[in-house]
Amino acid sequence: MFERLRRVRPTVLAAALVAAVAALALPASGLGVEGKSDQACQLSVFSWWTGGGEAAGLTRLIAIWNKAHPTCKFKNETVAGGAGSNAKAVLAKRLAAGNPPDSFQGHAGAELRDYIKAGQLEPVDFIYKQAGFGKAMPASLLNQIKYQGKIYSVPVNIHRANVLWYNPKTLKANGIAVPKSWAQWMTALQKAEDAGLIPLAMGEQWTAKHLLETVMIGALGPKGWAALWTPNSQARWSSKAVTNALNRYNTLLGYTNSDAGSLIWQDAGKLVADGKAAFNVMGDWQDGYFSGTKKGGNLALKPGTGYGWAPVPGTDNVYDWLSDSFTLPKGADHRAQAVQWLTFLGSRLAQDTFNPVKGSIPARKDANAKLYGPYLKSALKDWKSDALAGSLTHGVVASNAWNADIDTALGLFLQTKNVGRFQTALVAAAKKNS
Amino acid sequence: MRKIRRWGPGLLLVSPSILLVSVFVYGLIGWNVKVSFSDWRQAQETSGFDTGAYGELFPGDAGQTDDFLRAVGTGDQPDSLSTDPAWIIDLHHALLFTVVFVLGALLMGAFLAFLLDKGVKGEGFFRAVYLFPMAVSFIAAGVVWRWLMNPAPGDRSTGFNLLFDKLGIGFLRNEWYLGLDWGAAALAIPAVWALSGYIMALYLAGFRGVPEELREAARMDGASEWRVYRHVVFPHLRPVTLSALIILGHISIKVFDLIVAIGGKQLITETPAVRMWILIYDARDYAKGAAIATLLLLGISVLVIPYLVYTVRSEREA
Fold it and tell me: Which residue, A275, A296, A318, A295, is CA-closest to A165?
C-alpha cells in the first residue's frame, strides 16, 4: 500500500489534493444557494432561548404556530450562551452579511437602536394598529420603546428588575421587618449585620449595576430616572440628586458580601434561600430559580414561606421593567409570514401560553391571572397600576455603547468607592452618548 | 517547460494553503487594521481614515507619557490622563499577569526538569503527570481554579482558603483574583500550572542535549554539582529559554478564555483581549476593538519576529 503510494507522481498527488480542497469547498457554497431558493417556506426565528422556562415556552409557541401554518413551518434558530451575548455576536455577523433571519429577539428599547440606526429594522406600528396592541398594552410602555416616534418590535413578556428578595424565616428569627422606605431598609440591614448575617447578597459586576439602577430609580423617581436618558442629559447627571443617589448606593455596597465578584446571580440568591443573607436585589427571574423544580437545577421553595418579595425600598408603585421582543428585519425572505408571527406574538393566546412557563408576565393588560403562580399574580396586579421605569442593565433606556461606558465607570467605582469620580465618569458617559 | 516540471508540482501542492492563509490570515489582519483606522464606532462606518480609536488608547501628548506608564505600572489613575481608564487597568493586569506567569512557568519548568534530570525513579510517570495539565483546556481549568481560589469568607470557604484553615495556616487566606492589587497575579497561577509541565519538557530535552562528557570533564576538574549546572549545563540552555519565553509571552498577551472562565466580564479581572471582546460585541465599538486587536498583534510580533530572525540566522550558520 505504502509502496504504491510512493510510486504516485508528485504532480498527480498535488492535483488530487487541490481537487480534494475544491470538493470540500463546493458543498458549502452549494448549500448557500439552496437556502436562498428554498421551495418550502420556513419562518426562521432567531433567539437565545435555549434552556429552562424560556425554551419550554418557545416550544409551546412553535407548536401553535406550526398547527396554524402547515405550509410555512417554524425554523428555530437559537444560539446558546452568555445571556444572549453569543447570540448577538452571531446575529451581528448575519446582519452585516445581509442574511437576516425573518425575525430576531432583542431587548425592547434602546438596545435595538444600533440596528435601527443601521437601517436593519422595519417599523412595526402598522401591526400594532391592525391587531389593536395599542389598546391592549400600557401606553407608557409603548412610549418608552418608541424611537423617533416609531415602534420597532413586539414585546412578548415583561420582567421586573426592582424586586427585593428575602427569606421570611430568617427575617422573623432576627426580628427584622420587610422594609418599605430607605430609612427602614438601613435599619433592617444594620440589624442583619449585627445578627451575623450578610445583610445584602450581591453577585458579579452586572448584578452590581442591576442594584445601582434600582437605587437610582428609588432616589430619583421614575420621571427623574427617565430624564437621565433624554438627549443632552449630562447636566442632569451632574445634579445633586444623582450625587445623593450614588451616596446611597455606596452605603448599600458597605452591606454586601466581600466575595460578590465571584458569585453569579443564582449564588447570591441562594445565600438568601439558605438563610445566610437577609436580602438580595434581583430581577423576577429569581422567582423561577426559587420555586422551580430541583430536577431543573432550581431550589423548589414555596413562594411566600420559603422566600418572599417586595419592591426595592423606595420603588413602591414603580415597575422597573425589561422585555424580550421580536423584530421585523429588512430584507428577510418571508416578510409576510414574519408579520403574522409578530401579530401572533402580541396576541393574548401567545402571551398567556409563553409567560406562565417562562416565569414572566405578558406585556398586555388582559392576561388570565389564573394561569400564573403566586409571585406572577402579584406582578400582574402591579403591572396594571405602577408607574413604569425602563431598565438600564437590561437594555431599555441606554444604547449598547452607553451601557458599556457605564460598565467601565461602575467597575472602577467598585474598586475605588470614590463617589465624586464615579459621578464625573457618568457625566462624561452621558455627554458622549446622550 | 522543463522548469515548470521542476517547481510546478510543488507550487501546486502548496497553493491551496498559500491561498487560504493569504485570505484568511493576512487578508483578515489587513482588514482588521483598516477597521482600526476607521470611524466605525457605532452601527455604521461613515467616512474613511480616522485615528480616534487609537487616541483613546494612547496618552494625548508626550507630556502625559510618564503619567501613562506610571499608571500602567501601579494601576492607580491620575486625573490628568485622557486615555480610557479601563484600558490602563487592562494593561496593568496584563503586565502583572505576564511577569508572574512567564517567570513562574519558567522557574517551575526548569526546577521540575532539574529534578527529573537528577534521575528520579519512574521518570516517565512523572513526566506524564506534569505534562497533563497542558492537555486540559483553559476553560475547563478555569472552572476548577475558580472553585479552588474561592474568596468567600467564613464557613462558605472552599478550595485553598479552606485548606489553609484546616492546616492551621489561616493567615494565608486571601481574596485571590478579587484582590485589588494582586488579583491579576492570582489569575496567572492556573496558567503557570497549565504550562509549567510543557516548559519542563523543553528544559528536559535541553538538559539531555548537554553531552555527558562535558559534565564529566567539569567534575574531573573538581567542579561541584551546582557549578556543573551553573557553568556547563545552563549556558547550553539559552536557546531553550528563548523558545520558552516566546511561547509563554505570546500566550500571556493573548490570554482570554482563562480570564473569562474565572472572572467573567468584570473590570477587576479584565485583560486587553477581554476588553477587545467587550468593545466589539457589547459596545459595538468596532474601530476601538480592532485597534486593541492590532496592538495585541504588534505586541506578539515584537516577541516573535526577533525570534524568527534569530532562528533563521542560527540555522544558516549551522
Answer: A275
Predicted structure pTM score: 0.89
Residue A11 to residues A5, A7, A22, A158: CA-CA distances in angstroms? 13, 11, 17, 65
Cell of A46: 432567531
Query: Which region among A96-100, A279-283, B99-103, B290-294 has the lowest average model confidence (pLDDT)?
Result: A96-100
Q: For residues A133 and A199, state if they share a domain.
A: no
Cβ atoms of A299 and A275 closer than 8 Å: no
Is A358 part of a structural domain of the chain? yes
Query: Do residues A152 and A51 share a domain?
Result: yes
Domains of chain B: 83-317 (1.10.3720.10)
Residue-wise pLDDT tens digits, B229-248:
888 888 889 889 988 999 99
- B154 Cβ contact partners less than 8 Å away, ≥ 6 residues apart: none
pLDDT: which is higher, B243 or A22: B243
Full domain range(s) for residue A413: 160-320+392-433
- Residue A114 shares a structural domain with residue A235: no
- Selecting from B150, B177, B283 the residue whose C-beta is nearest the C-beta of A400 gives B283
pLDDT at A28: 44
User: Are residue A371 and residue A297 in the same domain, yes or no?
Assistant: no
The domain total for chain A is: 2
Chosen for mutation from A107, A111, A259 (greatest number of chain B CBs closer than 10 Å) is: A259
3-state secondary structure of A161: coil
Average pLDDT of the segment spanning A129-149:
95
What are the pLDDT digits (tens) for A184-193?
999 999 999 9
A34, part of any domain: no
Which residues lie below 8 Å from residue A233, measured CB to CB, with a gap of 6+?
Answer: A227, A430, A434
A15 touches chain B (CB under 8 A): yes
